[in-house]
Design a protein that fits this description.
single chain, alpha/beta, UDP-N-acetylmuramoyl-L-alanine:D-glutamate ligase, 5-stranded parallel sheet, 3-stranded antiparallel sheet, 10 strands, about 35% helix, globular
Amino acid sequence: MITALSIAGSDPTGGAGLQADLQVFRSLGVHGMGVVTALTVQDTKKVYSVMPVFPSVMLEQVRKLLRDVAPDAVKIGALGNDDVARHVDWGLNELDTSRRTPIVLDPVLLAGDGTPLLERRAWATLGDLVGRATLVTPNLPEAEALTGTDVSTREGVEAAAARFVTGFGAAAALVKGGHRDGAPDDLLAIREGGSASLHWLPGERIANADVHGTGCALSSAIAAHLARGEDLREAVEAGRRFVHEAIRNAQARFLVYPEAMR
């Protein structure tokens, strides 16, 4: 059995967060496991409040789970506050280092409506988690906030992407271009020695696609493909195709995930 673990916030609509991650894993033929980092009060349009879980309980969940089941990939989403983020970092020490388990980190700072999903003082801890990541998947505002780089130009996006791998220590970064006017091209940066190899990935904007949870779906789809043993470039491309199809088939603000790779 191929397994993947999501450590993320709960979205009661099922359109994003832990619930969406598990749906994506299932669609891609991967058994999903989950540890909740925060509870939210939200609908498909707005987050009304965020309540981080007890960090010690969440840490014990992670530790006990990882001592029993070795996941083939880990996806980390919204963390809520610094205490939870630090406890996630500690919990990941239970991973078997000999397995080199892929970790996909979606550094969620804000909900789509602008509600904070991670307090500002947690950004330093988030940087520690980035250093563990096989792939970090920031959108443009997140890339700008976390690296302090102006991403209004392609050169700025390249500098921010390189900062994640040469500065923070991630193995790779996928800076998502959906917030950009025009074509939503993504940029994949892969660490090669002490520098970053940069690869622009062309995107297509789908008209009238008012949907919820695309960032969660992309990072969890990539994690699922990594769990299946695909290399990073293959997993990123497959994840992007998966989400593109889910957006095309969206209904009532919800992504409809293709039944793929069974």
